[in-house]
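## Example record

The block below lists the input lines for one assembly entry, exactly as stored, with component labels intact.
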Amino acid sequence: MVINFRGETVFAGTGRQQFNPDQQTLVFVHGAGMDHTVWLFFERYFSSNGFNVLSIDLPSHGRSSGKPLASIEAAGEWLGELLAQLEIGQAILIGHSMGSLIAFECAARYPRSVAKTVLLGFSYPMTVGPPLLEAAKNNDPAAIDMMVLYGHDIRCQIGGNPVAGTSVINTAKRLLEKNKPGVLFTDLSACNGYANGEIVAQTLTSPAIFISGVRDKMTPPRAAEAMARKVANGTMATVADSGHGVMAEQPEAMQKLLFDAISA
Amino acid sequence: MSAPRYLGFDTMSLHAGQQPDPATGSRAAPIYQTTSYVFEDTDKASSLFNIGRTGHVYSRISNPTVAVVEERMAALEGGVGAVATASGMAAIHLAISTLAGSGDHVVASRALYGGTQNLLAYTLPRFGIETTFVDPRDIDGFRNAITQDTRMIYGETIGNPGGEILDLPQLSEIAHAAGLPLVIDATLSTPHLMRPFEWGADIVVHSMTKFIGGHGTAIGGVVVDAGKFDWDLSGKFPHITEPYEGFHDISFSEDFGPTAFITRARVEGLRDFGAVLSPSNAFYFLQGLETLSLRLSRHVENAAEIAKYLAAHKAVESVNYAGLATHQDHDLGRRLMPRGCGAVFSFEIAGGGEAGRKFIDALELFSHLANVGDAKSLVIHPASTTHHRMDRAALRDAGISEGLIRLSVGLEDVQDLLDDLARALHRSQK
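Predicted C-alpha cells for the full assembly:
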C-alpha cells in the first residue's frame, strides 16, 4: 500500500491482505540501505495468520519517496507520527539493525502507539567503522562489499540457502546497489551517531525482545544482551548459525522466534 | 577485524550452495531422489504454498540436490538466483517465455546454435513471438531492429559455429537504453572464461550439458538472473510488475525485489511448463563444476594450439577462432575473455563438403557426434547436422558453408590430437 505522509509517499508491504481493525498490527522496519523485501516471508506468513502487516520502506528506500532520515531520533519520530496517522492502535514494531534502533527510539517516544518491540541485530552504540563510513560517503562499491561480508556469516557466502536456488549474498548486494547516492552513508551515519540509547533504556516500559545471530560480527550478541538487561522488560534470544542477516540466513529459525516473540 | 574478502571462484566451484548434509554429514551433495517432502505440520504446509515460509514442496518446483547446482551457478555467475532445467533448450525457452508472450518480439544475433535458431525462427512464431535476426557484429543493426514490441536482445557469448564474439558492453547499452534486458547464452564460455553480468548482461542461460557437466553424461540447463534489471522502470513487463492472479496476486518486482525474474521463472515457468532438472543429473553437474577451472584451462590451452596448427595448414582455408590474432574479434575476445576464447571453433577445409566428409571419416580420436564441451574431443559438420534445417540463405548469413567443420577440443594430450588432425587432413585432400 502507498501512504501519503508528510508530503511524500511511503510504501508498505501488507502481504496483499486488507487491513482488519480487529487484528494486531505488526510494523517491520528494515536496516541500512535495505527495503521491505527483506521481510517477504514474514510479511506473508503473519498477514495470513491473524495479523495486519506493514513492512515499510523508509524514506528514499525501496518504493518510498523523500530524503533519507538523518538521525535515529528523527526516524523514530517519523515512525511514531506515521503510526499515529494510520490509526492502527498499539502496534508491535519489528526492526532489523538500523531498523531496530528506529523501533527502539520510537517505542520510547510513542509508548501509547507501541505494544512491544522485537529488535533483530541490535547493538548500542551501533558504531560504524571509519573505512565503511568513508567508503559509503564516497559512494564507493567497497562499502557494499563491507556491508555484505561483515553482514553475513561465511557459511552464508558458501550457501545452502533455504530459498531454493537463490544467493543471499548477491541479493543483499543488489539491494544495496539500488540505493541512490548518499542514502547508505546517511543511514550508516545515523546508526553511528545515535546517542540516545541510555535514555531510551531508562524510559522504555513495553516489552523489548532482542534477537541476535550468534555469529553476528556487526552487532555481536553481547551488545544486545547488555541492553536487554538494562530495559525494564527486556529479553534476549539468539539464532544459531547466523550472522547479522538473521532473516535471510536462518528464515525458519527466525520465523519461530518471531512467532514466539509476537505471541508472548 | 581483517578486511573482508569474497571466497574465490575455484573455492565456490567446489562449495557454493552446499553445507554438509545436516541429516547424515555427507560431504558430497546427496541425490535427493524424491518427488515430494513431508510437511512438518499443517501450518508449514499452508505457509509453503503461500510463500510464507521456506522449504521444498514438490520436485518440479524445487529439489535439494538441484538447488545446490542452482545456487552454485548463481554464485559463479554473480547472480541473485538460478533455475536449473531439463536441458539447455529448456533453459532458453524458460528465459524467453518468462519475458515474452504473444505479440512480443525478440532481437537476436544471427550466430546461434541451430536448436536456438529453430526455436526463434520456427517454433516461437507459432506462439506469437517473432524474432528479427541481426549480424552479431552489426551493433547498429540491433538498435534498428528494436520495435515497441521487443522484449529482449538475445545472443551467444561465442557464436556457434562461427566463433563470433558478441560485444556485450555495447549491446547492453543498446538494450538498457530501450528498457530491455540482455539475455545471453554463455554455454561456450562458462563463468570461468567470462561472467556476462560483469559486461552488462541481465540474464544468462547455459546448456550445462556442455562444459559445466564436462563429461558428456547428462542433459541439463540453467537460467541465471543478475537481479540488476529494473522491471518497474522499463514498464514493458506488466506480468513481472503487476499483481499476478495466477500466483497469489503477487507483484514479483514489488514483493521479491532483485529476485523478481528468477522467482517468476520458477513459480510459473517450472510449475506450468515443468521442464525441471532431475536430481540425478544435478549430481553429475555438481561433479563437473568441481573441476570447471581445471578443465577449462586445459580445454583452452589445447584449443589455442590446435587453432594455430590449423591456421598454418595448407588444407585449411580459414580458422574461426577468436584466440587467433588474425580473427576479426580477437581484440574483443581478449578483452572480454582474457583467459581464452573457449574450445569450440570451426574451420573451413579446402575442397568443400566432400573434403569435409573425408576428413571426419578419417579421424580416430575426435568423435563425430552432436555435442560440444565433452572432456573428449568432438567434431561435426554443421551444414548437414546441427544446422541442417536452415536454408542456404540462412546458412550463408550464419557463416556456415559446406566445407565448415566444427571442433570441440578436449583434454587429451595435444600432440595426439594434432597427429589425428594431420592424418585426417592429409586423407581429406586425396
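The radius of gyration of chain A is 17 Å. DSSP finds twelve helices and eight strands in chain A.
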